[in-house]
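Please check the following.

. . .
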Amino acid sequence: MAICIKCGKENESCLCDSCRNEADPEAICQELIAYKPGSGENPIWEKLCSEFNNPYNLRNLVFAISDCLPTPRKEYQRVMAIAGASSNVPKDSRPWFYEIYEAIKDHDGLIEAEKNRLHGIAVGARYMDYDYPAADKIASLLSESEDIPWQTYYNLADFYTKTRRYDIAEEVISDALRRFADDPFVVQTMQNRTEKNTKQREKAEAGKQEYMPNPKENRDEVRQKYVDFLASIGIEVAVTKPRKKTSAAIPKDQYPNPVETREADFDTFVAFDLETTGRSPKIDSIIEIGAIRVVNGQVTEKAEFTFQELAKPFKRCLSEEIQQLTGITADDVEDAREMWEVFADFMKFVGDDILLGFNCMAFDSKFLVRAGRYANIIIENKYFDVMRYASQFNEQLGIEAKKVSLADLSEKLDIENPQAHRALADAVTTARVFLKLKEMDGGADKASVDELLSDLDNW
C-alpha cells in the first residue's frame, strides 16, 4: 500500500482522491524535483526517501504525477525529474531524452527559458555522446537567445572549453555571472567553471596536452571525430595516445601497512584529505586529493604549498549521492588523470613530511595504500590521525560522543570550513583543528599558531 505524498494517508497511488482534486500536479512535480532529501522540510517525503535505496529517487514520482498533464508539460517535467538540479541527463537516459527533445523543443506550450533549458541539456548530451557538430549547432542557436538558465550556461561553457574555444567559454561564463550575480550558488558554480577553463587555457599556452576524449570503447574512432570537428572550426590538433600505467601493481601481501605516530611533537606536516566514490577501499576509488603543507608552523606561497587534483574513478562511477555531497560531477572527473598518476605527483608534493588527516588511519590511509600499489610507490611517511588526537580533549570541548566528525569538531573550535566535503577545504580545516588542539595542549607556540591560522584564513 502506497501513501499520498500530500497528506500521508495510505492510498493505492501517490495522491489520494481528495488531494488530487485540490492539488496542482505541475507544482508538485516542481517541488519534488527541487526537494533535497535530508533537509527535513517535508516529513512525508523524508519517510518516502528513507524507503528508497537512493533518496533522490523521490523524483521518480514525477512520472506518475505528471501523467495527467498535457504535452509538452508532462514531458518537460519528466526530463527535469531525470536531470534534477544538474545540467545533464544520465547516459542511459539520453536515447529517451533525444526523442522527447525532438518532440517538444519547439512546442508553443513551453516558454523560452524552458526551451533553452532543454537546449542546454541537449548540448551536454550531444557532446558527451561525442556528436560535436550537433552540439555546436544547438549552441549556435542559443547564442541568439536572452533568457538562458544557469545550467545551460554551464553546459555551453563546458562544451566550448572541451572544444578548445577558451575565449568563447570565458564570454559565456561572464554573461552568466552578470545575469545571476545575486545567486551565490550559481556564482560559485560558474567561478569553478572559470577555473577549469583557465587551467585548460594554461595547458594550451604551455604546449601541454589539452582535453582529448577518452572513452572506454571506440577510442580511436571517437578521437578522430573530435579532431575532425576541431579542424572544421579551424583548430588543428594531432591525435595522441592516452598515458597508461607502465607496470603491474604491487601485490597486496607485499605492500607495507600504514605506520602511525601519536606524538604531536611536530610543526611541519602535510594535512590531506580524499574524496572517494564510497566507503570501501576495496571497490571504491579516489576522485580528489587535496593537501596543504605547514612548515615550521607557517604557510607561505599559497600555490606552492597546496595540492588539489581530481582523479578518474577506477571502475566505479560516481553515484548521485556522492555528486550531491561533494559537488564533484561525473563530467568533472571524466577527463581527469588516472588515480596512480595523480597519486605519484601527490607523493612528490608530500616528500618526507608527516601525513596528517582526520580519521585517516581507518579510512584515507587504506585508499592511499591501494593508490600506492597501482603507482608502484611505497608510502614510507608516518600518519597522524587528528580524530584520535582530538579524543583527549573531549571533556574540555564538551564532547560526549566517542567519535566526532570534522564538522562537529571544527564548530566546537570556532573554525569555519569554507567548502565541506571538498578535499582541499577539508585538509585546510584539518590543519587548523590540529593547530588549535596543539595550542590547547600547550604543545605549540601560541604566536606561531596565531600567525598560521591567520595565513589560513587569508588563503
Observations:
- The mean pLDDT is 88.
- The chain has two domains: 2-192, 259-458.
